[in-house]
Design a protein that fits this description.
By secondary structure, the chain is α/β, with parallel strands linked by helices. The chain has 21 helices and 28 strands.
Length: 731
Amino acid sequence: MTSPETSLGANAVRVGVVVETPQHSGLLGVLDYLWARPLDAGTLVRVPLGRRVVTGVVWPLDPASTGSMTSATDGDTLALHDLKAVIEVLDGLPALPAPWRKLVGFAAAYYQRGLGEMALMVLPPELRQLDDTQLQRRLKRLDKALSEAPDAAEVPPGVPGGAGADGGAGGPTLPALSEQQAQALEALAQGGAQPFLLWGSTGSGKTEVYLREAQRALDAGRQVLMMVPEINLTPQLEARVAERFAGRRIVSLHSGLTPAQRLRHWLMALQGHADLVLGTRLSVFTPLPRLGLIVVDEEHDPSYKQQDGARYSARDLAVYRARLEGVPVILGSATPSLESWHNALPVAQGGAGRYVRLDMPERIGGGVMPRVRLLDQNHVLKATMGQEPPPLSRPLLEAIAQRTERGEQSLVLLNRRGYAPVLHCSDCGWKSGCPHCSAWRVFHKADRTLRCHHCGFSERVPRACPDCGNQDIQPVGRGTERLEEQLAEALPGARLGRIDADVTRHKGALEAQLASVHAGEVDVLVGTQMVAKGHDFRRITLVAAVNPDAALFASDFRAAERQFALLLQAAGRAGRDADVAAHSEMWIQTWHATHPLYQSLVKYDFAAFAARQLEERQMAGLPPYASLAMLRAEGKTQAAAQGFLEAAALAVQDLIAQAPVNAGLMLYPAVPTPVQRVANVERAQLMIECGQRAVLQRFLSEAQAVWLAQAQQHRRSGLIRWAVDVDPLAI
Ligand code: ADP
Ligand code: ZN
Ligand code: ZN
């Protein structure tokens, strides 16, 4: 396909191509190249860029049709003979479909990134490395594999009526639907292409609803996109999907795949061979020519928001994409995000009335949620006469011991890994700080290291205090590792297990640990939020949260929302079988037993909790009643980072003053981020708030150019990086 420039001929035409350019290069839009004939938008090409050859996507030259920012080089349009030629066209692939381009264009504009950056970022990394010959080879190999796979013969892609349509011959036997499942499915069938919020208790059978709805879409010859927060945490879901749709082509898409796998799965989706894509946030961009349904499981989960680069929310993009492609989207959760909750509240109740809410309050099989017991630590403190209270107070320890004796399991939740968050010398006051961050290094006893959870810096634990030589340096506070040790002492004979990011670092370790819990080889399972997610434990009758109070007073306005979700998810791990549900309990060890969060939790009253939170947010002018953007900066010094932010705020004052509509815009002062130095880089942020999303959007895209210029100037004074985070999750 390679065509030297000279051979393009007299009919050479101008084609627009987006390539990956850094956000701040000034090239934000579509670049012009030459080719012998017009190319379909969405075609992949290899083009020269500076001295390199890079992969790009053909884009319409009229930027208006993409919803993207215009090119910074507009105005000085180059003459034809000045343009460089496309090097080759990767025409073994179908062009990326128009809705895909629209989605990318929208995401780039909304999240304030370059169009090319966004478009290339969401392609499989390996695809960007291949030339046409290499790609052809991959495609041939894939074709061969597909024609050899037995599934292919049974269910040609796009042909309705795969295995298991109604549990018929050969298919898996489907459970009889509960009444509330049947109602939800009925509403989905009637509702058509709308966003739905499936609000169902943990264990209410939400997954079954997804699977039935997916079945309907598959039977109609459509593709399904099913999104989960973190695939590794939910191996059970993958297994259930595979079992239910045996005979269909199911592919996964997440960052844990090898580059070759990821490319293969993506190609199968684009070519229409894959029927169902099960993936994490990045899968929201999968091109699916026959898309019929999008599911976003655990829609409240923060991992749907990308935390660096283009900081998109896959949940929000899923809703946009569903509307764009005219398909239904189901957002499922027991504790929806307050944004989604508000969107699903009828206007008459003060909500936005944008989503249809489907309620499934009851657990399958008559299981009830465990009874919540608030264990007031103030009483315990009195009882221990001023001594340091033990990790678990006596009544809780006794309750766990009883469970162990009866052969039941307990789950102890502590959302902090490691042995102790800091080591301390009581002689001179030394603490295990990180030399590169404004944070403590965590003591990990298993490998005797002090490890920084922000920059990764790790050292062996010193034998003595590095400052004064005192041999007696002590751990302060408690992480899961220490809790496990202390519980082993306090509960002699009990078999302990632990699940957190440290024990599950190695591939297969999480699965092994989960299997031993399921097999009944563990009496007491200690874990971080990792254990709260999605696992279908059968024999857990007690869940304890031992240190849940910190979130009540955190500065981030979403801390309470997250904590409520975490505690409710954790509670959902208990009592999943009706015969044990009746005596299942959730213990909360707290110093603030009367706090409204806990009072709502006792009643499992998410609606009341949400109503109260929303009221507070409305009064404070916070999302979902206002839109936020965070201007973030990193510098060699804190002054450099803040200096840029202050200059950036000053530089847009004119812009704001120009349009009366901008009166609603509010720029807060520049402040250091909560952990202000990470890996020797100082970080600061400036919050921008506005009652109207559209106004904020327009302001941001106009401000980009101003900030770009400011940033150039501030580079000399130590600015390293800056970015806009639209709809930031962490404040
Ligand atoms: P959720 O996703 O709401 O937490 P699941 O869909 O995982 O709930 O369902 C919980 C359990 O109940 C699972 O083991 C599932 O197989 C089972 N289940 C779901 N629906 C039914 C049903 N209609 N009849 C019997 N069992 C069901
Ligand atoms: Zn010391
Ligand atoms: Zn560090």
